[in-house]
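Onboarding guide, step 5: your first structure request.
Type a short instruction followed by the sequence, for example:

Predict the 3D structure of this protein.
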Amino acid sequence: MGYAQLVIGPAGSGKSTYCSTLYEHCETVQRTMHVVNLDPAAERFDYPVAMDIRELISLDDAMEELGLGPNGGLLYCMEHLEDNLDDWLTEELDNYADDDYLVFDCPGQIELFSHVPVLKNFVEHLKRKNFNVCAVYLLDSQFITDVTKFISGCMTSLAAMVQLEVPFVNILSKMDLVKNKKDLENYLNPEPLFLLGELNQRMAPKFEKLNKALMDLVDEYSMVSFVPLDLRKVSSIQYVLSQIDYCIQYGENADVKVKDFDEPDGGDD
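The system replies with structure tokens like these:
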């Protein structure tokens, strides 16, 4: 049984920084973790790249050879990855043991995890390869400055949940940059009536029924909640990692490993 995190979220939400910090943390606690780059446009990394989509296809090559723009080129690269799941990806995954832990650093195009089936098929392939998969959705805490932006983030996360159909952990990233953390408390454990009142104040009266429907969706299904992540604090990193490990059942079937020590050779006095 392998384990995998699929790190997704809008561009600039801190996905690569999250991956590099998670890798450093695991190095410190002597835990093995491999980070995989799935962004064909990436140029530099702050972590050792275990697998790299650019070995299959890069954005620059797609744009140059096909005359595509950045967005169209990236979608083409990801669809090319989808076409090579049984070849390139399977061959790469065969290099890892059954209990290895992989973290996939994904591009930031929202359509990749909201309605285009590329990542959904990618996840299904990982499942067929006996991986437990958790999606980790990052949303920049600087983005949550008012209720309308919060609802927008919730709906994007919910769309990804419906599309990918895997356990989900939603993270508010860049908490170290938030000056007044009390401003975010209403969004970490949101009260529907508070959010509805805020929405109705900020939007025209004709949207009141829509606002109530959105609040009912968030409230009744209780599917969207966010965990704050401050990368300066080890306790915050540990808490987020424990939430993800629980979702993918990491360590539940681990055997206790006892290190054998060679007994010193007995000598005659």
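Each response can be followed by summary notes, for example: The beta strands are 2-8, 34-37, 49-52, 101-105, 131-140, 168-173, 226-228.
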